[in-house]
Amino acid sequence: MITLENDRLHFRFPEVHERAECSVSFRRTLRIPDDDTPYPLPPGLGNFPLRHVDDYKSRLPAEWLRRGGVLMPMHQAEAMWISFDSDFSEPAYPFAVKIATGKVCAVSGEGWTNHLNRDPQDYVALPEQPWIDGYCVEKGVIRQFIAMPLGEGYTVEEQITGVAEHGGVQIVAYPMKAERYEAILAEHRARRHIVYEAVQSPPRVQSPSMGLAPGGLMRQEIYDDPYGLDAWDQRHASRCFVTIANSAQWMAMTGEKPPTDPPTAKQYAHAGLPWFDYYDGDAEAVSGAKKFTDLSSVAEIGAQKGETPLHENESLTETRVVRLAPTGPRPVREPGPP
Amino acid sequence: MTQFGRTVRELRERLRQEDARFSLRQVAKRVGIEPAYLSKIERGDVAPPSEATTLRLAEELDADPDWFLALAGKVSSDLQEIIRRRPELFAELIRQLREAPDDAILRVVREVRDGDW
Fold first, then answer.
1. Which of A241, A244, A327 to probe by mutation at the B interface, max B CB count within 10 Å?
2. B7-40 burial, b for 16+ CB within 10 Å, e for fewer?
3. Does B96 lie in the same domain as B64?
4. Disulfide check for A244: which of A38, A178, A210, B87 has CB 3.0–4.6 Å away?
5. B114 lies in a domain?
6. Do B54 and B16 share a structural domain?
7. Residue A321: what pLDDT?
8. What ipTM was assigned to the predicted interfaces of this complex?
């Protein structure tokens, strides 16, 4: 089952195991420059609000209601990362989570399927993967998730399938098989070792439906599944469609103000606030998706079309980078004091 | 020592073993209170802090905010607002579910509806 708690999607599988719980949240962040230079990890700037689509039946398109799930506002050209958290940290219950945008998998580049695939891997394994910031274009390199209106040719969905049909984000989570987790738990207890978990939008009227497009490059590894396909209980899955609404229409839809624009990367770096690097020396990273080889970034498509979709896209020369490790307390990507 | 204070100290000390940033002084600074005040909270010399400070402590120590508020003897303002709107209904609901097992309570929790896509 999935519940919505404090702007987080909470996945629970009590029928599998009492500890089979994890949560997924969508974090506001800086848009890194889209200039073909790999940048470190930007900070989290709070959660995007999430609302049940069913709460706004009279104000939403029928298509959005048919898909169910939740609604989230994003400004055009705004960036986002997805955070994965475990409720139990001693040890965390492992999950396989598939993330797609416009029904194109962000890890493999393949179309949506309701099961897990290993070759190429089309999911991330928790708790090893604490977050995902974009599309896996190369081993150790992703292109940042950037919100763009559907139908203008920027989204990954349109670049891969040629159609602007779905938009949004799709998630499905599979818990580890209970007996596999019990084995991990027994080993953990035997060791008696505590493991911590670790733009302003242009003023023109656009489609209220948003999709995600590939932005600038970022150094981030998507880890190879260390448990193997057999570890996941694919008889039990919970999935959710996250419709992305254009922030410009959020007030009309929900009666709430959308979040304000985040600071630009330049403003953030100028304030001396930290960027992040996350390195797990024990984990192997997956290769980039072959389907993403020919993907064009938002800035590249904008240049081809003679448009400027990304304002404030200047390159950054200096960033203060804080290194995060998978050991110790769960790594936190927050600005903190300068 | 209060249960709230004891829990704050235990969580903070456990984190400090792995990371020196979880010293009393540094945690107090990040939460926005004086180290002496955090020390008194941990020892139970003062009542648990305000809702806002309790929530900042929960976030800092990676603890569930509702659990922390409950330990501090508080009900979060959003829950108070929910109860104020329909007090009889929610008071009765909570009483009815007082002894219910977790799975029974989860059956009345609203799920995110999955549709056709």
1. A241
2. bbbebbeebbeeeebbebebbbebbebeeeebbb
3. no
4. A210
5. no
6. yes
7. 87
8. 0.79
Nearest to B115 among A197, A241, A329 (CB): A241
Q: What is the pLDDT of residue B104?
A: 79
First to last CA, chain B: 54
Residues B65 and B85 in one domain: no
Q: What is the mean pLDDT of chain A?
A: 89
Query: Which residue on chain B is closest to A330 by alpha carbon?
Result: B62
Among B103, B112, B116, the residue with its CB nearest the CB of A52 is B112
- Residue A102's pLDDT is what? 97
Over residues B71-87, mean pLDDT: 90
Average pLDDT over residues A229-233: 96
Of B19, B29, B114, the CB nearest to A68: B114
Same domain, B58 and B93: no
Beta carbons of B116 and A170 less than 8 Å apart: no
Which chain B residues in 14-33 lie under 8 Å from chain A, judged by CB atoms?
14-15, 18-19, 22, 29-30
Residue given tokens 């070759």 in the structure block: A119
Average pLDDT, rounded, for chain B: 91
Residue B78 contacts A where some CB pair is shorter than 8 Å = no
Domain with B59, as residue range(s), is 3-71
Looking at residue A120, its pLDDT comes to 93
Distance from the Cα of A242 to chain B's closest Cα (Å) equals 10
Which residue, chain included where needed, has tokens 């600074």? B29
Per the model's pLDDT, the better-predicted residue between A248 and A325 turns out to be A248
CATH of the domain at B12: 1.10.260.40
> Which amino acid, one-letter code, is at A116?
L
Task: Tell me how many domains chain B contains.
Answer: 2
